[in-house]
Amino acid sequence: MTYVYEDGIEGFEAKESRLYTMSRKGTFFGIHYREEADPLTKFISVVKGRGLDYVIDLRKDSATYLKWEEIELSEENALAVLVPAGIGHGFLAMEDNTMQFFAIDKSGTDGHSKQLNYTEKKISLKLPIPVTDISDYDLNAPFLD
């Protein structure tokens, strides 16, 4: 389902925003998430280029636990993804110089964000192209217990 919001998103007020540039096709960012006990909502879109956004259900009590979806975000389709607490988020740049807009509803980095290795076998993300660039932080992310 796609929703168009012209007057904002009820319940979401951006406190911080960032613009990330992924200079190379195949750059992967994530998987990052926030537990439901300390919620944080993310709003993600692409303002230049094209990428695949991955949302992964990491809520252990959910009927869709460990299921994931892939959403193409691009400057052409102007779609955005709203990611609530308990849902993991990853992003794969599909073009050089892709720019991702990222907004959150809390200020500051308080150390409560968690991460998960994108190669986790229990999730089995199916990436259409190889990962060419990834930060050490994401590459060395933990696996599920």
Any overview of this molecule?
It is a single chain. The protein has 145 residues and is mainly β. The chain has one domain: Jelly Rolls (Sandwich). The protein has one helix and nine strands, in the order βββββββββα. A five-stranded antiparallel beta sheet has the order 5-4-7-2-9, with no helix packed on it. It has a four-stranded antiparallel beta sheet with strand order 1-8-3-6, with no helix packed on it. The longest helix is centred in the last third of the chain and has 4 residues. It starts with 15 loop residues before the first strand and ends in a 6-residue tail after the last helix.
Integer average pLDDT: 89
How many separate helices?
1
| Largest sheet composition | 5 strands, antiparallel
Percent in strands? 35-45%
Q: Tell me the helix content.
A: under 10%
Question: What's the Cα radius of gyration?
Answer: 15 Å
Separation of the first and last Cα atoms: 32 Å
Which architecture name does CATH use? Sandwich
Provide the spatial order of strands within the biggest beta sheet.
5-4-7-2-9
**Broad CATH class:** Mainly Beta
Q: Give me the CATH superfamily.
A: Jelly Rolls
Low-confidence spans: none
- What is the N-to-C order of secondary-structure elements (H for helix, E for strand)? EEEEEEEEEH
Shape: globular
Q: What class do helices, strands and sheet pairing give? A: mainly beta
What do we call the CATH topology?
Answer: Jelly Rolls
Q: Care to count the β-strands? A: 9
Count structural domains.
1
